[in-house]
Amino acid sequence: MGFTVDQSIKSFDGRLLKLSHKSEVTHTEMAVNVYLPQQYFAEGSKKLPILLYLSGLTCTPNNASEKAFFQPYANKYGFAVVYPDTSPRGANVAGEDDSWDFGTGAGFYLDATEEPWSKNYRMYTYLLKELLPLIGKEYERLDTTNISICGHSMGGYGALMLYLKNPDIFNSCSAFAPIANPSNCQWGQKCFGNYLGSDKAKWAQYDPCELIHNFKGEKKPILIHQGTADNFYRRDHQLQPENLVKAAKNSPLDGLIDLKLVDGYDHSYYFISSFVADHCAFHAKYMGLD
Ligand SMILES: N[C@@H](CCC(=O)N[C@@H](CS)C(=O)NCC(=O)O)C(=O)O
């Protein structure tokens, strides 16, 4: 089943497509936005790389499409941006709308193994086995063999986790204020506990601080920005990017976590958009575009 194009909006010389499709993985209708840069519309253009951007808790595909400002850099370098949703919606699972940090808007990019979540909350398989292949099929001038990954907060964790597990699929990884050690913070413990149960060995299969030890890809840096005025970082200890720097020691990525603490920035899209240029330049290099 293909995409329905709900809207096609001109933006920074390219077009933002608001798409939806029926997912056989989540058994729901899924929304996804795709930004096609100006190069996509040029006669005889070659296949364009893809930046997969994963959003944080409560987001739909629209938050980053409207407020992160990837578009000028997507046009500068010539890559598309794919903005998936953060969970299935309307799965009708009891309790999915009870809190903002679990269930709807908080799929944690994993495959739930526990009832009643395991039928629908399967964002890991959805992204890798359904969404990316469908993008490749429907947009033949996008190159699904040249994908980089980036994300914010829960999506920053998602980007780290997906990259560390699948270096054959993703060229490069960066994150804004990621939940770097989910087994060790309230947000992660709540979601891992409900979706995966109490077996910590299952949690380790998704925690970047565990996965980094078994990373099998090329030795490249991972770029992370973290604002020092982010309350989820300094007050609530939900993010803990330093734990990933520590975990990298004596791992294949020893010394390659490029954590940039940026003074005075909070957790919002004002922070993200301030450093999007750096992240796009970083990924463009590994996409072969600079
Ligand atoms: N709803 C939460 C905040 C959730 C939040 O900050 N979500 C971040 C990701 S973790 C986000 O991107 N929010 C949407 C936005 O800023 O557009 C609260 O009330 O504290």
TrEMBL record:
Record keywords, A-Z: Cytoplasm, Hydrolase, Serine esterase
> Does Translocase appear among the keywords?
no
Pfam family of this protein, just one? Esterase
EC number, UniProt record: 3.1.2.12
Q: What does this protein do?
A: Serine hydrolase involved in the detoxification of formaldehyde.
> Which family does this protein fall into?
Belongs to the esterase D family.
What is the protein's name according to its record? S-formylglutathione hydrolase
